Structures
1.
Amino acid sequence: MPGIRGYHKTEWGVTMHRYIQIYLLPTPDKDKSSNIQKVKLGEEQLVEVTGITTGESGKDAVVEYTTAYRDLTPFSVLVATNYKQIASRKANFSLDDEGWKLEKELHFK
């Protein structure tokens, strides 16, 4: 693994040293049978909310915001991503009796 210290390649795969354990993410059962291990690359953090647009009903909203990567791990070099770029994002929310909830799809009423 280029740029990564603390691993040892064996004839059956890769064994990671103790200090790398802090970067390992939980492995879903479906990935365990394929010996897939997900690792933390860094943290994508909220920079700024840049806009909120409410639907006509007042029960739907689109929130526009920006994010940036912080606290990159040694594994970040393995993914071709521009970690210095500020990303623009959108999130959809709907209001129900329990409050605002994050939605997967946009539903203006």
2.
Amino acid sequence: MKLKDKIILVHYIGVADLSDAHIREYVNEIIKNVGHEDDESVEEFFVPIVESRDTRIECINPVVVSEEKYAEVEKRLVELQEKMTEAIENFSKK
């Protein structure tokens, strides 16, 4: 499947309060909990943001999608954001 045909998700992960030693562990934990490595229709990028603790997921699609497909993508984004929030909370409890 070509990149132009995939759903492209960018995960911006806020790491402002973490030490350098913990950033990699934290980001890897997020990837493990929300990544879609087995889904060939999704291409994901995980970007640590050192200036902020805000975390968000954005869909960057190079093609125009139908309303039906957009609704599906939007639903997946909401689910991913919930999973990411849960993973962050679980990591914070460690």
